[in-house]
Amino acid sequence: MNILEATRRFEKWLRRRIGVAEADLEYKHRQMRDDPFLFFRATFYRWAQLWPEACPKLAGAPRVHAVGDLHIENFGTWRDAEGRLAWGVNDFDEAFPMAFPNDLVRVAVSAFLAARHHADFKLKPGEITDHLADGYRSQIERGGEPFVLMEHHPKLRKMAIQELRQPAEFWRRFEAKTAPLGGPLPRPVRKAFRKILPRGAEPEYRIPTKPKGLGSLGRHRYLAVVQWQGGILVREAKSAVPSACLWAQGKARPGRGNPWLETTVRSAIRCADPHYKIREGWLVRRLAPDCSRIDIEEVVHHEDIAALLYSMGQETANIHLGTPKGRKRIRAAWKELPKDWLENAANKMLKLSLSDWKRYQAS
Description:
This protein is α+β, with helices and mostly antiparallel strands.
């Protein structure tokens, strides 16, 4: 099955589970042709199909609660229940039990692509994989630790504080990229918002006018905006669907939702985001200036990319350590891996992704 057929079949599978925003899906297809990094982010379904065939030994390693669709833009900041600024993985849409090397190889490939197309990303492939692997192993050995930026991790804190959007500008851009909902809000979405907003809140419902994200493009999104006690509150709801791993494995799961999403988030060693919830088949989360992902431009211009990659390796371990007996199994399996396994696997998957991108671009 080539990339064109895989895309057609996956989207057909998706339409059987949720209502699809067709205009967003068309925008996704254009983005996939424009840039290999965007293509990589948008095609986890293809990765899930190719990974076990291209790297069978690694795919047979101990399974953990994996992010699945992990890449260097899948990290960001949020506030925990105590108001502390936390950092880590912030998108678990494709969470699924997978061999632990999967997430590390995904991050490495995304970093390889960034290094190929951004002059400021000065690390070589072997250096990239060394920093990721060293961070991962160090966190596995210590048993994990959440990233709280205001007390520790000065390099991450500096990047996060500098890049946190100023509220006035953030809300101005939010207003420009959204519009009032022109029709009725689906009842499950209304119930989901009601459960996560403050009691007595009277929201205005809006929709994005500019497509957001890549891997989840095509899913319907709704926004609840509330003027509350002198400021603005925003919650976003997007439809939750089963991981593309099920599609790749030929397993039909009826209905919407991804039970592994909640399992993975709750079990991970991290400061919980109190506003990241699954409600009525919808993923609901808070949008705010200090609750945002780190995009590739922020990554490549960071003064210490090596330290950032090391932290990404550590956070990946934090996720995997939520798996029962995960630490013991990962430590035992790691000893059996060849020295350059991560670089070699990332190079192999990179070549496959670039080959698919060229074919898709030419179609």
